[in-house]
């Protein structure tokens, strides 16, 4: 007769779970005409260039009025919260380039 | 036994092989077998360090994670640590979670950093941490398992899962384990932690996000050794001799830090302090603009004057970490470039809190 | 991802452009921030190293999607500037 030799153990879970986050997206815009766009460049090669090209196209075709440009000091860090807050106040929408 | 551990997983097994396989199944390993983190064993670690399970050591805010003492203990158990090593692992974790270390960078980047831990102070002798031959391993339990704990903490507790949030293109073997101690007793040099502001009688750990160690063999005169080290540190293709990710800093290149581990006997360095070593090295770790243009690090055609225009790769002498250690049979050094720019991650030193009582 | 999501949190619509190899990572990051539906725009890899003309045509390719993400409407439904 086979004995059940299996034993039970409690293991401490070495993993973590993210702290729950709630997210509500911002209200979309009806029209881009006359609006100000914020650009965040992560400082990787061509990040700036692609944002400039997009901004030019938005100006030419959708009447976008103005640009606020921010280059992050490091691609490995989130944008400075103060920059994000200011962009939120001073711009109507934003484009972020994650280069590579 | 009751324990303060909240986050537990029930498991069962018949023998040790099944126990190890269970941990693989749970996705908790670095690819090598681990010691199953039973609540009893984890509790021993918590008791030894006398730290509450739910004490928060720091956070990885970008990944919405808080790192608590119990998680660090579970990973240290899995790495094969003894309870006595746990205070060292706790200090290393605190150092990695310091904002200037910017853990999110080296633990996710394509560049593939290992986290080197350099241990200083009385704890080296107390825990028999290797500071001599085979400094970078293998063969010593403390070095191997403390270093391995760091990687398991990154993978399990900080979500640096290879392929998901750890996007390293190549990585390097130091990502398994990368922990050394300084041979403080056989040199006239001040230990690294003392240079970084800690009293000699305390123990401390320094973490540094970096590439692998490059062994440098040289003649037995300080100038010759340092010239070789400077040459290696000035190589094209390191993360420092590179552009990008420097944003609006005034530097054209990334400008990082380097660690230099000096082996051999101390008498070679008679009359030299660590500060002398740094002052000698810093201006010599550089590259002409011409070379950087040829390899497309800097844009533009090579102008004649570019051959004589040099760019430093390490911004100041203080960004050179000098450690004495390794075998003494002959002058050899290891040169370790940082993973990236200082703005993206800077070496951090934290004191190791001795266990109460 | 982090920046785009935080711009939404401070109240302005954002379009984040990321290259294809980072799809899984970007989506996992967005989910972690409670925004699994965050409309990241993916483009082929690499963007770094491309000459300026290629960057210009890439921007041209991405434009409609950028506009759609910001306005919530197909670009063709908006009146371009005469």
Binned, the helix content of chain A reads 25-40%
How much of the polypeptide of chain B forms β-strand, as a percent range? 15-25%
The secondary-structure element order of chain A is: EEHEHE
- Judged by helices, strands and strand pairing, the structural class of chain B is alpha+beta
- Major beta sheet summary of chain B: 4 strands, mixed
Q: What's the helix count of chain A?
A: 2
- Radius of gyration based on Cα positions of chain A: 23 Å
Tell me how many strands of chain B there are: 13
| Gyration radius of chain B, rounded | 21 Å
Number of helices of chain B: 10
Outline the low-pLDDT stretches of chain B. none
Cα-to-Cα separation, first versus last residue of chain A: 63 Å
What do you see in this structure?
The complex is a heterotrimer of chains A (100), B (357) and C (82). Chain A has 100 residues and is of the alpha/beta class. Helices cover 26% and strands 23% of the residues of chain A. Chain A has a domain at 36-97. Chain A is built from two helices and four strands. Chain A has a three-stranded parallel β-sheet with strand order 3-2-4, with helices on both faces. In chain A, α1 links the parallel β2 (36-41) and β3. Chain B is built from ten helices and 13 strands. The mean pLDDT of chain B is 94. The longest helix of chain C is centred in the last third of the chain and has 20 residues, at 52-71. Chain C is 46% helix and 11% strand. The model of chain C has no long low-confidence stretch (mean pLDDT 89). In chain C, α2 (23-32) links the parallel β1 (14-19) and β2. Chain C is mostly helical and 82 residues long. β1 of chain A pairs antiparallel with β1 of chain B, so a sheet runs across the interface.
Q: How do you describe this structure in short?
A:
Chain A is built from two helices and four strands; from the N terminus they run ββαβαβ. Chain A is of the alpha/beta class and 100 residues long.
Describe the protein's topology:
The complex is a heterotrimer of chains A (100), B (357) and C (82).
Chain A: E1 7-12, E2 36-41, H1 47-62, E3 66-71, H2 81-90, E4 93-97
Parallel strand pairs in A: 2-3, 2-4
Chain B: E1 8-13, H1 16-25, H2 39-49, E2 56-60, E3 65-68, H3 69-79, H4 86-96, E4 114-120, H5 123-126, H6 141-157, E5 179-181, H7 192-195, E6 204-210, E7 214-217, H8 222-233, E8 258-262, H9 274-281, E9 286-288, H10 289-294, E10 310-312, E11 320-324, E12 332-337, E13 348-351
Chain C: H1 2-9, E1 14-19, H2 23-32, E2 41-43, H3 52-71
Parallel strand pairs in C: 1-2
């Amino acid at each position: 007769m086979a004995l059940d030799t299996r034993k039970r153990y409690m293991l401490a879970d070495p993993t973590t779970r993210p702290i729950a986050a709630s997210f509500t997206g911002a209200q979309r815009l009806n029209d881009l005409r006359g609006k100000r766009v914020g650009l965040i460049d992560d400082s990787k090669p061509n990040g700036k260039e692609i944002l400039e090209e997009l901004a030019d196209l938005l100006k030419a075709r959708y009447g976008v009025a103005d640009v606020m440009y921010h280059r992050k000091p490091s691609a490995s860090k989130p944008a400075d919260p103060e920059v994000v807050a200011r962009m939120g106040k001073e711009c109507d929408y934003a484009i972020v380039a994650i280069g590579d | 036994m009751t324990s303060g551990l909240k986050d537990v997983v029930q498991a069962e097994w018949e023998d040790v092989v099944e126990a190890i396989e269970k941990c693989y199944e749970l996705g908790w390993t670095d690819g090598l077998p681990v010691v199953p983190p039973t609540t009893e064993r984890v509790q021993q670690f918590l008791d030894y360090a006398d730290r509450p399970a739910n004490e928060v050591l720091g956070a990885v805010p970008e990944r919405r994670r808080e790192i608590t003492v119990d998680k660090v203990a579970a990973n240290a158990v899995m790495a094969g640590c003894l309870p006595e090593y746990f205070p060292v692992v706790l200090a290393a974790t605190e150092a990695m979670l310091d904002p200037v270390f910017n853990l999110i960078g080296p633990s996710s980047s394509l560049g593939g950093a290992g986290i080197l831990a350099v241990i200083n102070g009385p704890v080296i002798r107390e825990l028999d941490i290797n500071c001599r031959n085979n400094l970078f391993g293998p063969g010593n339990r403390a070095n191997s398992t403390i270093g391995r704990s760091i990687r398991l903490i990154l993978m399990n507790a900080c979500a640096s899962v290879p392929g998901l949030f750890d996007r390293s293109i190549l990585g390097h073997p130091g990502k398994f384990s990368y922990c050394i101690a300084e041979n403080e007793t056989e040199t006239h040099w001040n230990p690294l932690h003392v240079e970084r502001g800690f009293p000699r009688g305390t123990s401390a750990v320094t973490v540094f996000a970096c590439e692998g160690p490059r062994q440098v063999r040289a003649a037995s005169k300080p100038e010759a050794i340092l010239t070789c080290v400077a040459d290696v540190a000035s190589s094209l293709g390191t993360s420092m001799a590179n552009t990008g990710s420097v944003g609006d800093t005034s530097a054209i290149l990334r400008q990082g830090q380097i660690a230099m581990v000096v082996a051999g006997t101390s008498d070679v360095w008679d009359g030299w302090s660590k500060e002398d070593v740094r002052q000698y090295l810093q201006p010599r770790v550089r590259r002409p603009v011409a070379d950087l243009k040829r390899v497309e690090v800097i844009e533009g055609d090579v102008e004649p004057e570019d051959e004589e225009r040099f760019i430093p790769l390490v911004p100041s002498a203080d960004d050179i970490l000098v450690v004495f250690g390794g075998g003494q049979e002959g002058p050899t050094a290891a040169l370790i470039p940082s993973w990236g720019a200082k703005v993206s991650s800077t070496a951090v030193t934290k004191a190791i809190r001795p266990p109460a009582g | 991802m982090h920046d785009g999501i935080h711009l939404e949190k401070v109240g302005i619509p954002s379009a984040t452009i990321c290259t294809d190899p980072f799809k899984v990572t970007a989506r996992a990051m967005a989910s972690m921030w409670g925004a699994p539906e965050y409309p990241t725009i993916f483009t082929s890899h690499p963007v770094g190293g491309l000459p300026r003309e290629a960057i210009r045509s890439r921007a041209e390719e991405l434009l409609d999607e950028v506009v759609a993400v910001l306005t919530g409407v197909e670009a063709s439904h908006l009146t371009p500037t005469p």
